[in-house]
Amino acid sequence: MSEKINLLGCSLESLEGFFINLQEPKFRAKQLLKWIHQKGVLDFDLMTDFNKDLRKKLSSVALIEPPKIYQEYISEEGTIKYLIQLRSGSMIEMVVIPEKNRRTLCVSSQAGCALQCTFCATGAQGFDQNLESHEIIGQLWLANFYKNNSKPITNVVFMGMGEPLLNYDAVIESAKIMKEQLSYGLSRKRITISTSGIVPNINKLPKDIDVSLAISLHAAEDKLRNEIVPINNKYPIKSLIQSCKDYLDYFENKRNITIEYILIDGVNDSIEHASKLTKLLSDISCKINLIPFNSFPGSNYKRPSNNKIGAFKKYLMSKGLIATLRVTRGDGVDAACGQLVGNLSSSIKGKNLITHKLI
Ligand code: SAH
Ligand code: SF4
């Protein structure tokens, strides 16, 4: 028998196709989306507006199954980090960041990453596998419904493990479910795809979905960027900046791209670097998110002093750029990208560790 399809990862469009194939009316797709993503129901037998025959038919060809929460870690400042096990056994992580007026979920799009940025714990682990769309949306489902979580997620960022634009189709399909009114109904401003600069897919993106875009730039000249973000050798800064301009031009309404810039002591944090960055971004509508490097075992990089970080930010602002400093949250549970999975083998000691049985 062929493997059952996991309907958790299907957008409205895909579900409509699925029901048509089953010779059922299309409107069933809307009902199913609501059951899964608004009511959190995974069992066909609890879906009361489906008759017995339909429920039986569905169970024989399909299932609805999120990935499993393996462990949960809560930091003092409230960030919750989940270690999640995929069906294959691979581990990924997601992070919930509660704030006053929002609750942000950071999702993974791949287990590991092939791109080997020198400052990144996920990159250091190498590439394991792409996530299926149900494993990506499954993270949002878990964050909303696991243990009857009462506060729903308001924002999603693709800033966990992996390069989202190298798992393009699954990322688009899951983002469609996030936006869909009959499921999570998140607006484009509340979903951010972060990329290290996969130029052909940045060019494709606006034609497939309208979400917010963040570019992990980290350096304003090719020589340095080639070194710390090696994918730059394939898609150099000039082509990346052009793709950002084309992206912005595609939309009629004015919008910003977020430029992410990690500050690493003695590597990319001088005023000269800030000056080059200012020139590079002079005619791009953007805001810059400065992220102090978050250290992890095995890395020789350091976070710059607060003075240096402040001076870098001040310089950008003096040139009229919008720059914000990301407050690093969740350090206590290694909440920066990829660090938890990286630590699994070296055991996690002294953390606020809550261990759950697999659900
Ligand atoms: N692959 C995508 C998305 C995942 S990384 C990308 O590179 O954009 C998400 C963000 O976390 C990126 O901006 C990345 O540069 C940042 N990041 C990775 N390692 C980090 C570290 N050690 N300290 C601080 N930020 C880090
Ligand atoms: Fe991959 Fe992003 Fe980490 Fe680079 S920063 S290795 S692209 S996850």
Describe the model.
The protein has helices at 12-21, 27-38, 52-61, 121-125, 133-145, 168-179, 199-208, 222-228, 237-250, 271-280, 306-318, 339-344, and strands at residues 5-6, 62-63, 68-74, 80-85, 91-98, 103-106, 110-112, 127-130, 155-158, 191-195, 212-216, 257-263, 286-292, 322-325, 353-355. The longest helix is centred in the C-terminal third of the chain and has 14 residues, at 237-250. Helix 5 (133-145) runs parallel beside helix 6 (168-179), helix 7 (199-208) runs parallel beside helix 9 and helix 10 packs parallel to helix 11. It has two domains: 5-63, DNA polymerase, domain 1; 68-355, Alpha-Beta Barrel (TIM Barrel), CATH 3.20.20. The chain has twelve helices and 15 strands. S-adenosyl-L-homocysteine is lined by residues 119-121, 159, 163, 194-196, 216, 260, 262, 291, 293-294, 296, 336-337.
- Helix content percent band: 25-40%
CATH topology of the largest domain: TIM Barrel
CATH class of the largest domain: Alpha Beta
- In angstroms, what is the radius of gyration? 21 Å
Provide the residue-averaged pLDDT: 91
- Taken as a percent bin, the fraction of beta residues is 15-25%
- CATH superfamily of the largest domain, by name, is Aldolase class I
Total count of domains: 2
Distance linking N and C termini: 26 Å
Order of helices and strands: EHHHEEEEEEHEHEHEHEHHEHEHEHE
